[in-house]
C-alpha cells in the first residue's frame, strides 16, 4: 500500500528528485522517486478527489488507484506540455470522475444504509398507544373478573404470563387460555 512507503534514503540527495528531474526518475521506475511523488502530492490529490466523490473511504481507494495509474502511464507525461503537478492532478481528477460514473458507485448510491435511517425507523416504531384513548379500560368491565385481572396485570402492569401463573398458583396453560379468550372477546367488543 502506498501510504506505508519507506522514508527517503540518506545516500540519495532529495533535490535530485524535486522539480523537473522527478519525472525522469519516475520514467525509469525509480522507487524512491515514487516515494517523493507520494510524499509531495498525496495530500493535495486527496483533497481534489475528496471534493469530487465526497466520501472518505472511497477517496482513499481512488488515491491508491491514482498512484497506480501514474506509475503505469508515466510514459504518457510530456514536460513540454505542462508541469508534472498538473498532469498528476488531472490523473487524480479523472480517476475520481471515472469512479463517479462507475456502475458500482451508482449502485452504492441507490442502496440506503440502515444506520442512516435507524433513528427515524425507531422513532416511528416506538410510538406509544394511549390505551385510555381507545377505551380499553372501559371494555374490561365486560370481561369476567378473572380474565380482566389477568389483562390488567399483563398490559397495564407489565407482568409476564409466567409471573401471573406463579402469583395465582395456576398452570401456565390456564393463564394462556384466559388471555386468549379475553382477547377474542375484547376484539368482538372493540370492532
TrEMBL record:
CDD domains: Sigma70_r4 (cd06171)
Location of the RNA polymerase sigma-70 region domain: 37-104, 143-188
Keyword DNA-binding: yes
One Pfam family of this chain: Sigma70_r2
GO biological process: DNA-templated transcription initiation
Keyword annotations: DNA-binding, Sigma factor, Transcription, Transcription regulation
Transmembrane intervals: none
Annotated GO MF terms: DNA binding; sigma factor activity
Sequence similarity: Belongs to the sigma-70 factor family. ECF subfamily.
Protein name as catalogued: RNA polymerase sigma-70 factor (ECF subfamily)
Species in which this protein is naturally found: Pedobacter cryoconitis
Phylogenetic classification of the source organism: Bacteria, Pseudomonadati, Bacteroidota, Sphingobacteriia, Sphingobacteriales
